[in-house]
Amino acid sequence: MFYEQHFDTVLGFVTRRVDSAHLAADLTADIFVAALEGAHTYDARRGAPLAWLYGISRNVIHTHFRGTVRERHLMARISGRRLLDEEDVSAIERRIDADRAARGLAAAHAALSEPLRAVLDLVALDGLTAREAAQALGISSATARVRLHRARKALRSAGQALDATRPALLEAAQ
């Protein structure tokens, strides 16, 4: 009975504010659903049922348009941006894998003892020969070659450990 008494009035209120018949019908239905859900909050001392319905109508319409504005803002933010294709995703995954490997090798490098790291850095980073690195460190060439061998072996082991964990990491990511 309440619905039938106020339907035309609420529909008129809505149609004066929207330009689509379907939207008007949807919003009118939403208004009556909200009224049914909030019926326990109606207080006759505060005004007539129609005034209460107009308040609900204003809130429902406002909420709809606020959501529409938010949606337009979001669409404007993403418009003009290119979505990633499979090639882009693959490139990003390769970069992530390379960065993970680099962090692993950096950690392995940091875990080397100072004497091994010193020889390795002089040879690998500074471009010295093993003999020149030995001279710079004041050690024999044989000692420098042994330390260099041990450092490279440790880094290879760390790299192989990373390679062994990569399939498990990829599986976990999917």
From TrEMBL:
Domain of life: Bacteria
InterPro entries referenced in this protein's UniProt entry, alphabetically: RNA_pol_sigma-70-like, RNA_pol_sigma-70_dom, RNA_pol_sigma70_r2, RNA_pol_sigma70_r4_t2, RNA_pol_sigma_r2, RNA_pol_sigma_r3/r4-like, WH-like_DNA-bd_sf
Domain RNA polymerase sigma factor 70 region 4 type span(s) in chain numbering: 105-155
Gene3D superfamilies membership: 1.10.1740.10, Winged helix-like DNA-binding domain superfamily/Winged helix DNA-binding domain (1.10.10.10)
Domain RNA polymerase sigma-70 region stretches: 2-68
Keywords: DNA-binding, Sigma factor, Transcription, Transcription regulation
Keyword Transcription regulation: yes
Family recorded in the similarity comment: Belongs to the sigma-70 factor family. ECF subfamily.
Protein name as catalogued: Sigma-70 family RNA polymerase sigma factor
Lineage: Bacteria, Bacillati, Actinomycetota, Actinomycetes, Kitasatosporales
